[in-house]
Specification:
With 499 residues, this protein is an alpha/beta fold. The strands form 9 sheets. The protein has a 6-stranded mixed sheet with strand order 11-10-9-12-13-25, with helices on both faces. A 4-stranded parallel sheet has the order 15-14-22-23, sandwiched between helices. It binds glyceraldehyde-3-phosphate.
Length: 499
């Protein structure tokens, strides 16, 4: 890593700096936050524990540069994104390696997280260059004539605060930054405390890509110190956040009337009907539930199988899960460490609760350090916490159902509404069930997932607010500006019907 000379301004030994007005600084507080590898417990580095005073400076820098960026031709803004994407591809491997170390993501997935972000930047550049307005003639509304014409085009919101989560610290911050910038906003990025280092590289990348100083800024620090200060600050014009529903709810209270884009938790249920293709279903469920050890908002978090296939499906899924590799993310093991020991304790609590209430343990329920063995629980009932709570870890409950109606009822009783899945060969029935599910997206014969990234991505209830996805994010991060032309009587032409 140290050999790449472009990265040298952002750090001093193990001490990473924050990025303001085109410069890498240390906090005036003198506070730093240590980042440890969740697998080996080894120290990876320190990020700045910025203060409210640092936050004020960052906010002012972003605010003062909104105009310059908004007035930079769209073609140039688009080109900055394209050059940034080129650099992400060039440096995907070294940055992916840091990502693997700081959050314990398998190396291959960590590198593809950087590449996927490059793809988002290219696609956002393409979509951004297609932004168009509309013209409406007044005579389409009762009592008005063609003398009133509205012309609408899109303008930026101002300063957008982008807060990403630990599980996709590069990609899910990148997917907020690209639409914010292409729409002409200036940006303050606040990385998560765990996973804080990797997104700092976006500062180097965007600077090399030609972003003017102050248009893109990064602040690191403790949520307890600067979280509420940033979100409640009057000079922040919009917030895009991915993280837990609990934090999202709190953020919304502090933010007041600012526009929000919130991607929060989920409890995605896979409804498996009697006629499902069990090979396909098993593969989708295992991949969906256990990729990155279940630390995904879109992970499959409950399986609701019909009686005729339940026994066979549980056996097939258990067999597949028992063959998953476990261990070092550097060796691309499927199951690696959870982000910290507190998360492991929480997951263990859910397993213990289910077992104490009569669930059947099919495999797992073992822990070493921050690694939790993938766990399958059968015969889970609705009085168990695991039926409703989001583990964000490798545990999958099977709640056996007797009818599609019961599956819909259990799915919809959840406080979450991110995605739902239906596995069946009866497409008519699948569509009818899909219409009943109170979620953002229903997957038919596939696992829940966010991508492809130009699809709309949203959640209902505690799962979020607003819609993400390339063009949807650009729309959310800009607003219509309407100019109405009022034509006078002067110069009016006479048109009479001659019939
Ligand atoms: O954790 C939340 C992410 O949006 C999930 O993205 O479905 O691509 O893993 P993914």
């Amino acid at each position: 890593m140290n050999e790449i000379k472009e990265f040298s301004p952002m750090k001093d030994g193990l001490n990473y700096k924050y990025y303001i007005n085109g410069k890498w600084n240390v906090s005036e507080s003198g506070d730093v936050i240590a980042i440890y590898n969740p697998y080996s417990n080894e120290l990876i580095g320190y990020v700045q524990g910025c203060s409210k005073k640092d936050a004020d400076e960052v906010i002012n820098s972003a605010k003062e540069n909104v105009d310059c960026w908004e007035n930079t031709p769209l073609e140039e803004r688009v080109n900055v994104l394209r050059r940034a994407a080129d650099l992400m591809l060039k440096w995907a491997e070294p940055i992916g390696r840091i990502l693997m170390q700081e959050i314990g993501k398998p190396l291959k997935s960590a590198i593809s997280e950087i590449r996927r972000t490059a793809d988002i930047f290219y696609a956002t550049a393409d979509a951004g260059s297609q932004i168009v307005g509309e013209t409406i003639m007044g005579d389409s509304f009762k009592g008005f004539t063609k003398d009133k014409i509205s012309m609408t085009y899109r303008v930026p919101l101002g300063v957008i605060l982008c807060i990403g989560p630990f599980n996709y610290p590069f990609n899910l911050t990148g997917s907020k930054i690209a639409p914010a910038l292409v729409a002409g906003n200036s940006v303050i990025m606040k990385p998560p405390s765990e996973g804080a280092i990797t997104p700092l590289y976006l500062g180097v990348i965007l600077e090399k890509a030609g972003i003017p100083p102050g248009v893109f800024n990064i602040i690191t620090g403790r949520g307890s110190e600067i979280g509420d200060y940033l979100t409640g600050h009057p000079k922040i014009d919009m917030i895009s956040f991915t993280g837990s529903s609990e934090t999202g709810r709190h953020l919304a209270k502090v933010a007041g009337m600012k526009p929000l884009l919130l991607e929060l938790g989920g409890k995605d249920a896979a409804i498996v009907l009697d006629d499902a293709d069990l090979e396909l279903t098993t593969k989708a469920i295992v991949k969906g539930a256990f990729s990155f050890s279940g630390q995904r908002c879109t992970a499959v978090k409950r399986v609701l199988p019909m009686p005729r296939i339940a026994d066979l499906l549980v056996e097939k899924v258990t067999k597949e899960v028992m063959s998953l590799s476990i261990g070092d993310p550097a060796e691309n093991k499927v199951i690696g460490p959870l982000i910290n020991s507190k998360r492991c304790d929480f997951v263990q609590g859910l397993i213990d609760d289910a077992l104490s209430k009569g669930a059947t343990l099919k495999c797992g329920n073992r822990r070493e350090g921050n690694i939790m063995w993938p766990t399958i629980l059968d015969n889970v009932t609705i009085d168990m916490r695991i039926a409703w709570e989001e583990p964000f870890g490798p545990v999958l409950p099977f709640i056996r159902i007797r009818s599609a109606e019961e599956a819909i009822e259990i799915s919809n009783k959840s406080e979450y509404g991110l995605q739902g899945m239906i596995f069946t060969n009866n497409i008519d029935l699948a569509f009818n069930i899909a219409q009943e599910l109170e979620v953002g997206t229903v997957q038919i014969n596939g696992q829940s997932e966010r991508g492809p990234d130009h699809f709309p991505f949203l959640g209902t209830k505690s799962s979020g607010l607003g819609t993400q996805g390339i063009k949807y994010s650009i729309e959310a991060m800009s607003r219509p500006k309407v100019v109405v032309m009022n034509l006078s009587e002067k110069g009016k032409l006479i048109h009479e019907c001659r019939g």
